[in-house]
Amino acid sequence: MSVWAIGDIQGCYKSFRELLDKIAFNPEVDRLWVAGDLVNRGEGSLETLEYLYSIKESVEIVLGNHDITLIAAYYGIKKSNPTIDPILTSPNAKKLIDWLRGQKFLHVDHKLGYCMAHAGISPEFDLGMALCYAKRIEKRLQGSEENVKKWLKKIFKDGVNRFDRESNKVDIDKYIISSFTRMRYCYNNHKLDYDQKGTPTDILREKGLKPWFECENRKEVELKIIFGHWSTLGFHHDENVLSLDTGCLWGGQLTAARIDVDEVEIVQVECEQAQKPTL
Q: CA–CA separation, 173 vs 99, rounded Å?
């Protein structure tokens, strides 16, 4: 048995299956971790979801911002687009959306020594806090359809970039879901910046903006954190984190990392550009 973690697929189904072939993934014996953003922008979002659903017993998934947007579009809260329309009009739409609603925001495996969240873990959270807060928003998303609709409408209003236990419940939920799915940069006071999306530079660091995993006094997380979401950061591997979004959607690579071995094995496939980056 082998365990592979894969970065953002975003509907690039052809590249995804090519990568699975390259690593000889066998769902009967192997495990697959997917770091969120399964859908949107790529041409095979429906096929990606249908395939992952078909091997759901062999997959660990964390939700990304695009996956949450898909769920919101299903409930009429966000606009659809041509790449997710096939999901929303599929006869299997409800089954797929209900399955997606049942996925995690944080996956933890103490035996392997890894955890996984789409954008990472907030500098404000240790592992216990992160698990607690992930379960909190998972419970919200897995509630009755009526309650989920009401909750998503509130969540998609203004984001929250500071963690405050004394805030109202909605603002706390906004911070939790934003940190797990949208975070890239933070300031030394742990305020998050959701607007800056570029590659980390010395100029940004001089302005006080650092990648969240470099933030001073970040609470300790004893497991290595696997994340995606940040295509301009690309592949990054150090003693604390493993970043796997290598820009498949933009004509980069789709990356898999074998994580059940002493030395992480990296396998990539080149991807056709599905969309051009917006300026």
A: 21
Q: What is the pLDDT of residue 279?
A: 44
Per the rule left: phi > 0, alpha: psi between -120 and 50, beta: everything else, 21 is alpha
> Has this prediction a pTM greater than 0.90?
yes
Percent of the chain with pLDDT over 70: 98
DSSP 94-118: HHHHHHHHTSBS-EEETTTTEEE-S
Q: Which domains does the chain have, with CATH numbers?
A: 3-270 (3.60.21.10)
Q: Rounded to 5 degrees, what are φ and ψ at 203?
A: -60, -45
Instruction: Please determine, for residue 5, whether its predicted confidence score (pLDDT) is greater than 90.
Output: yes
Angle subtended at Cα 33 by Cα 179 and Cα 3, rounded to the nearest 5 degrees: 140
Q: CB–CB of 232/197 below 8 Å?
A: yes
C-alpha span between 63 and 65 (Å, rounded)? 7
Give the pLDDT confidence of 125-145 residue by residue, as tens digits: 999 999 999 999 999 999 999
Question: Which residue, among 60, 23, 7, has the nearest Cα to 241 in the 3D structure?
Answer: 7
Whole-angstrom distance, CA of residue 260 vs CA of residue 251: 28
CA atoms of 41 and 118, how far apart (whole Å): 17
